[in-house]
Amino acid sequence: MTGTFVGMPVFPEAAREALADSQLRHNLAHATSTIRAKRAKVVAEVPDWEELRLAGAAVKERALLDLETQLVRLEETLTANGATVHWARDAAEANAIVAGIAKAHAATEVVKVKSMVTQEIGLNEALAEEGIAAWETDLAELIVQLGDDLPSHILVPAIHRNRAEIRDIFRSKMGAAGRPAPDDLTDEPAVLAAAAREHLREKFLRAKVGVSGANFAVAETGTLVVVESEGNGRMCLTLPDVLVSVVGIEKVVARWEDLDPMLRLLPRSSTGERMNPYTSMWSGIAPGDGPQEVHVVLLDNGRTRALADEVGRQALRCIRCSACLNVCPVYERTGGHAYGSVYPGPIGAILNPLLKGVGHDDQIDSLPYASSLCGACFEVCPVRIDIPSVLVDQRAQVVDAHRGGVPKPEAMAMKGAAYVLKRSRRLSALERLTGLGMRFARRFGPTAWTGARDLPDAPGESFRDWWQRTDGGRKDDA
Amino acid sequence: MTDARSEILARVREALAGSTVDPVETSAPREVHPVANPELVDLFAERVADYRAVVERCSAEDLEDRIAAALPTGQVIVPPGLSIRIPDAIVDDGTLTAARLDLIAAVVTEARVGIAETGTIVLDHTPDQGRRAISLVPDTHICVVREDQVVADVPDAIALLDPSRPQTWISGPSATSDIELDRVEGVHGPRTLHVLITPPRDVIS
Ligand code: SF4
């Protein structure tokens, strides 16, 4: 695997490969069930969790519906705090701005805080082309980067790797990137973490330029917030002379007190902790403390396209907690790589089509179908994104985008469903045909999905027929 | 070609044409707790300890002895405005480089707020806590929290804090669960967090 998502096979093909990998499925099942249990426990501690979710959703929704005002305000307050604000329409513009800042300081390397947005824009690759090495400093990101691999989970990107694989990566790759792994490296997590500490400390101590994203940006006060666990974030945000933060325009919240529901919702939903070990906040430049040159790049890259979609807009509320991944039966079996994006799982299945548009890329068009529509993702989402509804709407948009051309199998399926569901008489007719359809599917249409799991036998009698015959179960079911 | 700023703002305007801001003001639910409630301090101590930090409660008179006992061998640095006397400590004057800080074993700071519900200590880096780097690079962080600084939950802390100041919210020592979800303390930040909870100085009997 090479370190790019470009050219990934469409979801069903990628999923079939992943399903065949039993080690991967084991690692994933262990990870998702562990995090799920932790989350459930700490969420249950909060008596007014539902109200808190509503408040969290409202904070983000208000900011999104008033986005122009909030962005202009954020620019004003950041500037007043001594930061320099840049705007970037797309990935190329954002990357060029970051590269330009690094070059202005003659930096040949930068240290990075884990951030989804810099992965989304391919910043590391873009900087490499300019001769600037971008070092990931989060342990999982380091594992992914040294292994020339791709992240597979929003929160724990190297979750598909086990300890023996990680030891091998550190042994064979650390030396070329800086301080090599010690000779007596074992596969104990504590020993591996200690090797990463030594390897990265050398980089932190000499870094001139740090790069980050932000979890939240407060318009009222010009404050950026980064939530993390390891302290690598604090290192990158504090020790370099220059700090550049790439911030998606959807990260803005209006007021300082809006951070309250967000900081109560995020850690419990994400790592299943009451609070994550470290949260850093900074409002531009603090004289004598931390970087004395601070830049903020406000990035669109498809966000305004998503904003224009009235159903899909709510996906921009996402705070990247990853709770929806951990409850998703599809993600649990296929893993993150199958989604072909830095945003995997249920949120990835809607966010990618929303950011990039449908109808021109088979990989993206396949994503809204990567779901069983079970609704578990909506249940856990701390900002109440109704992912199932958006999935259905995105499927319809994929179908519409292909209207006129050669219809795709899934498009035919959706059109068929819409036609049938409109008229109940047609539904009962179709139910009677299901047995035939299943046989047909088994014989001629082993789709990727059915190729990897068993198709249930069609019942001998349709639900409607059963209801009529038994009066909904009141008569003898013989 | 228009500049990026005008174009993005124009796209935002166009995307939202016809939508209105929800006038319903939804604020987060919160219970109001009395300040300096002894039960809150107990909860704070319990929750901080939950993260595998070292937590001790002591009287104001005992504080200096307890700190001395908690210090590892090696140099110790203190912020310029620390109100507690630490013998032989280096007082940070803001000139020590990160590489120099890396040779220092421990740091002693005060705090701004303690949050009971989440077991969080908030530093806002005033002179009693010092600049961010000194509580980050040394491997042991000894942090003194006064009982009257403990609040119930996140909203109480947000209400007290000054957004114009840099802040570090600390909940236990640095930790990672990136390798098979096994929790390991201390990747990059201080591996030992030692919290001393003490009554406010003005009630020393
Ligand atoms: S969609 Fe919701 S649950 Fe999923 S990552 Fe975003 S905020 Fe978390």
UniProtKB/TrEMBL annotation, chain A:
Name listed for the protein in its UniProt record: L-lactate dehydrogenase complex protein LldF
Domain of life: Bacteria
Recorded GO MF terms: 4 iron, 4 sulfur cluster binding; metal ion binding
UniProt keywords, alphabetically: 4Fe-4S, Electron transport, Iron, Iron-sulfur, Metal-binding, Repeat, Transport
One protein family per Pfam: Fer4_8
Domain spans labelled LUD: 73-299
4Fe-4S ferredoxin-type domain boundaries: 315-385
Lactate utilization protein B C-terminal domain sequence ranges: 394-469
Region (Disordered): 451-478
Originating species: Nocardioides panzhihuensis
BP GO annotations: lactate metabolic process
Positions with biased composition (Basic and acidic residues): 462-478
InterPro entries hit by this protein: 4Fe4S_Fe-S-bd, 4Fe4S_Fe_S_CS, FTHF_cligase-like_sf, Helical_ferredxn, LUD_dom, LutB/LldF, LutB_C, NagB/RpiA_transferase-like
UniProtKB/TrEMBL annotation, chain B:
Domain LUD: 99-197
Native species: Nocardioides panzhihuensis
Signal peptide: none
InterPro entries found in the cross-reference section: FTHF_cligase-like_sf, LUD_dom, NagB/RpiA_transferase-like
Protein name: L-lactate dehydrogenase complex protein LldG
